[in-house]
Specification:
Elements: E1 2-6, H1 10-15, E2 25-30, H2 36-46, E3 50-52, H3 55-61, E4 66-69, H4 76-85, E5 89-93, H5 100-112, E6 117-120, H6 127-135, E7 142-150, H7 154-160, H8 176-192, E8 197-205, E9 208-217, E10 222-228, E11 236-241, E12 244-248, E13 258-262, E14 267-270, H9 279-291, H10 295-318
Parallel strand pairs: 1-2, 1-4, 2-3, 4-5, 5-6, 7-10
Antiparallel strand pairs: 7-11, 8-9, 9-10, 11-12, 12-13, 13-14
Helix pairs in contact: 4-5, 5-10, 8-10
């Protein structure tokens, strides 16, 4: 599969050197006029044939099957839409868009054009996450679920000084919910689907959530998703059932070793880590696009829409608004 990468930030730099090993050919890289030197540097370092500083030019001229959108959150919708309209399959970095209205519009467009549209969310594709699904019946009826992904951000120090970087900027769809808690939401909703109600209690500074707690009522059990960029704590994911529990001491985005602990004293640990946490998702994207069968893609897309809806509802309840929300 031939891919064009949009963006020159941290995630693009992490992915570019690895793509060929996953059966994906990075044929083009696009930045902005301000990032021209970064585009040239990354193309040289990763053997990318064509570098662009104009997105429309890349879509028109580059020989690519798909576009990977790895830019700040508020740009996801417009760039993904433009790629779909150009007939390209799209992989868009998490979160898919700033709000569910935008996510639903992209999903409709992809289906109308018979194109693939994926949200790059590592959690759902990791082998240990699949193992959790397999182990769930052994812990009986689920009663409580909790995920905590909290890591103090150096950018928060700048934020407190008044230097607003994208991750803390409501104008650019930032905040802890969009950056970190999205992994917890995908982790929980990927296993249990939509909750009956979603509420968000957040630490709000300058109109953005620097940390917060999402509570999800599933009727027969409760779930909580905690994430913060203004404080830190040991990461954990715990699923508690009537016959035992499933434990992880890692954040939901890496989904590390899984321990099954049953009431009868049984304890088992499983761990199948990939070389890179991004590898399983990108191998899956390439495999599905090569196959031409959109069934799996659209199933994953429905999960992304559910999470986008939950995020939008949670933000609204907490009073965090983005320009994409409209009036």
């Amino acid at each position: 599969m031939k891919i064009g990468v949009v963006g020159t930030g941290t995630i693009a730099r992490e992915v570019l050197p690895l793509l060929r090993g996953w059966g994906i050919e990075p044929c083009a890289l696009c930045g902005t006029p301000r990032s021209r030197s970064a585009v040239e540097e990354l193309c040289r370092a990763n053997g990318v044939r064509e570098g662009f500083c104009d997105y429309g030019e890349m879509l028109a001229a580059a020989d690519v099957d798909a576009v990977y959108v790895a830019v700040p959150n508020h740009l996801h919708f417009a760039l993904a839409k433009q790629a779909l309209e150009a007939g390209k399959h799209v992989i868009v970095e998490k979160p898919m868009t700033a709000c569910v209205r935008e996510s639903a519009a992209l999903a409709r467009l992809a289906k109308e054009r018979s194109l693939f549209l994926f949200e790059a969310i590592s959690t759902l594709y990791l082998p240990n996450y699949r193992k959790i699904r397999e182990l769930l019946p052994r812990i009986g009826a689920v009663r409580l679920v909790s995920c905590n992904f909290s890591q103090y951000s150096r950018r928060y120090d700048e934020f407190r000084k008044g230097n607003i970087l994208p991750v803390f900027d409501p104008e650019r769809a930032g905040g802890a919910l969009m950056d970190l808690n999205i992994y917890n939401l995908h982790y929980i909703m990927g296993l249990f689907g939509r909750a009956k109600t979603v509420r968000y209690q957040a630490n709000i500074e300058r109109g953005i959530d620097t940390g917060g707690i999402v509570t999800m009522d599933y009727g027969s059990f409760q779930a909580v998703a905690i994430a913060a960029k203004d404080c830190s704590a040991p990461a954990s994911c715990v699923i508690q059932g009537t016959e035992g529990c499933i434990l992880q001491s890692t954040p939901a985005n890496t989904c590390g070793a899984v321990t099954l602990r049953l009431r009868d004293g049984t304890e088992e640990t499983y761990d199948e880590p990939p070389a890179s946490r991004l590898e399983p998702e990108f191998r899956y994207f390439a495999q599905e696009i090569r196959s031409g069968d959109r069934t799996g893609c659209y199933e994953m897309l429905s999960r992304s829409l559910a999470v986008s809806e939950a995020q939008t509802e949670a933000r609204a309840g907490a009073g965090v608004r983005f320009p994409a929300d409209g009036e």
